[in-house]
Specification:
Strand order of the largest sheet: 2-3-4-7-8
Helix content: 25-40%
Number of strands: 12
CATH superfamily of the largest domain: 2-enoyl-CoA Hydratase, Chain A, domain 1
Shape: elongated
Order of helices and strands: HHHHEHEEHEHEEEHEEEEEH
């Protein structure tokens, strides 16, 4: 009796939402064709096609933005970098996803992500970055910050709540903390892999002898995780805080879908030279917890490395 009642309802709902079915099936095709690995891409695509077949989002039939949000939530349970974007006219309030201009405008209004620079007691430098914005808008700000911190005896880089962003900016910051010519690892795609080397240094080099602590939390993601993971693997920094979000995969350009939708498909992943792995899923695991006051914990760890007794 139950199935006899449900099936006619689904049939009507699906017939009333042909756009959803087309969009999901097209997204599945893009995922199967472009996801990082063929086997995983095929598995995820099958899941997405099953959502279309079962009418998973029929309750959002008349609301493209709600449909895209719900589908994105389900996709991100499979890979945190996925995103289904509704037609531009159906975007919720705020800048449209994948809008480079909106991203650049945000960078200008946020000091290029350089939210705080100061010297703590004990001559310990502190740099808080809220995001990794486009390099051309961030270079001068990061240069000024690292110049100001040029004479510190230890450095804390705070990447808590930093969800990532521009890989070139993260590469440059990380390069300023490691020896020139460092090879971070390689980038894997379906068609092979390519070296991921530190770029020619464009920022002031941080003194090699000073201890560094990187602060992270569960909202640290992507490029922020790359910086923490790379410095930790190289033995250049101690990582303190909570395990990060676990988003290592790299998002490719948006793929256009029927009816004005688009889908972002992760199509590459970094692999670290030293560990032979990355932080996808598991996140960056800190060397020590941050406790009630992670910044104080980080400062005290650096003072201990310098042979000084931490002050309460």
């Amino acid at each position: 009796m139950f199935s006899a009642l449900v099936h006619p309802f689904l049939a009507v709902a699906l017939a009333a939402c042909p756009q959803q079915t087309e969009v999901l099936n097209a997204a599945a095709d893009r995922i199967e064709a472009g996801y990082i690995t063929q086997a995983e891409g095929r598995t995820i695509a099958q899941r997405v096609r099953s959502w279309a077949a079962e009418g998973r989002y029929v309750e959002q039939c008349g609301d493209p933005a709600a449909f895209a949000e719900a589908a994105t939530r389900d996709l991100r349970a499979l890979d945190g970098h996925f995103r289904l974007v509704p037609p531009p006219s159906e975007q919720s309030s705020g800048p449209a996803p994948f809008s480079m201009q909106a991203w650049r405008d945000e960078a200008r209004a946020s000091a290029g992500g350089v939210r705080e620079v100061r010297v703590l007691e004990g001559n310990i430098g502190y740099l808080r970055l809220s995001a990794f914005y486009p390099w051309d808008l961030t270079e001068t700000r990061l240069t000024a910050a690292l110049t100001l911190l040029g004479d510190v005896e230890g450095l804390i880089i705070d990447l808590r709540r930093n969800g990532g962003g521009d890989g070139r900016t993260a590469d440059q910051l990380t390069a300023s903390l490691l020896p020139e010519g460092t090879v971070f690892g390689w980038i894997e795609r379906r068609d092979g892999r390519s070296p991921h080397a530190a770029p020619p240094r464009a920022l002031p080099a941080v003194k090699a002898e000073i201890p560094i602590v990187v602060l992270i939390d569960r909202r640290s993601g992507s490029a922020a995780e790359f910086t923490a993971y790379t410095l930790q693997a190289a033995g250049r920094a101690e990582v303190i805080g909570d395990r990060s979000g676990g988003a290592a995969h790299m998002l490719g350009p948006p793929q256009l879908l029927p009816h004005g939708y688009a889908v972002g498909v992760p199509d590459a992943r970094p692999v670290n030279t030293i560990t032979g792995k990355n932080w996808e899923g598991g996140g960056v695991r800190p060397d020590a917890p941050g406790g009630d006051d992670p910044l104080l914990t980080a400062r005290d760890r650096i003072l201990s490395k310098l042979g000084r007794a931490p002050k309460s």
